[in-house]
Amino acid sequence: MDLMFNLILQHKLLDYCQVEAQLNFLKKETQNYTSRCATEAKKLAEDVEIETHNVDIVEREVADVQETSKLKFQETIKQNEEEIQICAWEHYALVDSVFELRRAHGIKNFRDEEQPFRNSRSSIRFLQRLLVSAVCNLPYGNSVAWVENGIKMSIRLTMEHGMDLKVEWKFVQ
């Protein structure tokens, strides 16, 4: 019986050693896996931190570009408003000088001469008709100059390349 008991005991001891070896192996594998996961988590955290930093930089750059664009846009609007004011003044001066020119040369053949301009297109058509009429009343290559409100204005009408009409306006302050 002792022999049998020893055999059973050896067999159990062998089983125990195998189980212990498996447990040690699993423990080591678990530690390795945990270590790899911790390393991976640390790397991911560093990557997130780097990307967060990059996003912050990009956001600052976007804010700078947005602010610069806003300032440029406001400056462009200001410049455009100034140019519009200048063009409006020049348009007014041109219309006024054309009326003066018309009166000076006695041009009276306009249907809507006393009607206010409905829009810029109608005023352009009016000015075109006025210039054509003025050309008919001025000798070839003639020019007219006058001073109005301290501004010297002149118009020179010439024919170029056959029938092309060249109109030169000058506003000198």
TrEMBL record:
Organism per entry: Vitis vinifera
The protein's name in its UniProt record: Uncharacterized protein
PANTHER family: KINETOCHORE PROTEIN NDC80 HOMOLOG
